[in-house]
Amino acid sequence: MREINLRKVKEDTKFEKNILYKIDRDMIVPVIEEHEQDRDIVNLYCSLKDGQYGIFGYEYRSSGAIAKNGWKTTDVLICMVDEQQKRIQSFILDVKRDISAFSDDLFKDGAMITAIKEVRDFIEQLNDENLHKTSFLIYYQADGYEEDVKFGIATRSFEANKFLAVADFLEKLKYNHIEKPSNMPDLIWLKFQRNLNPYKTQVQSLRNFAEKIVEVGGKEYKLQVFLLEKNNESDFEISIPIEMNNK
Hints:
The structure is a single chain. This protein is α/β, with parallel strands linked by helices. The protein has one domain (7-159, 212-242). The chain contains four helices and twelve strands; from the N terminus they run βββββββαβαααββββ. The chain has helices at 111-142, 160-174, 186-196, 203-210, and strands spanning 7-8, 20-23, 27-34, 39-46, 52-57, 76-82, 87-96, 146-155, 213-216, 219-227, 229-230, 235-242. Helix 2 packs antiparallel against helix 4 (203-210). The two termini are 22 Å apart. The relative contact order is 0.18.
């Protein structure tokens, strides 16, 4: 197969956005999300066998043909390539500080809309990154390679019950089976319902997400959830093994 343009990883490489790197040996690829007071760190432990190499992209988007604005990316795109078996195992993952950070009180501080948008935007990220991946894997597929793809999220907490509660509320709202909270004035209640009306179609997506299922490219996939653990006062961290599984 003719080669695609990949940048070699050196000992002092600082991974740049929108660049495809070639992983040609066992190594740890750190993905670091900086916040004001702390950091989220995902260490990708890449293991290779003979005839294998990896392709890594940090916030990678297909270059040239698409505009920068309007397309989302994920923090991690990694493809493990086996030249002997003509197989590719891809992994798309995004780091979210805390996907479940919205209030337990769904009527408070825009909690429901926050939850809906978090899930919607995350799934859009996965779908867009999957398309970016296709922009170069198409050359492998033309050469007879088969691909398996997995999707993941790294976050400090994942509270499925909170997303199910939002889905339940939206479903009741859809069929007018919801009662107004006794302590909420009528006008505020009407505004609250009006603000949620555009999101009634998100019920199934929220239920799926709570059950660790995402729809990408019209297909459903199991979502791998990795919980970041506090390592010290400023770092939340997890290590993820990346290797080609047996077929």
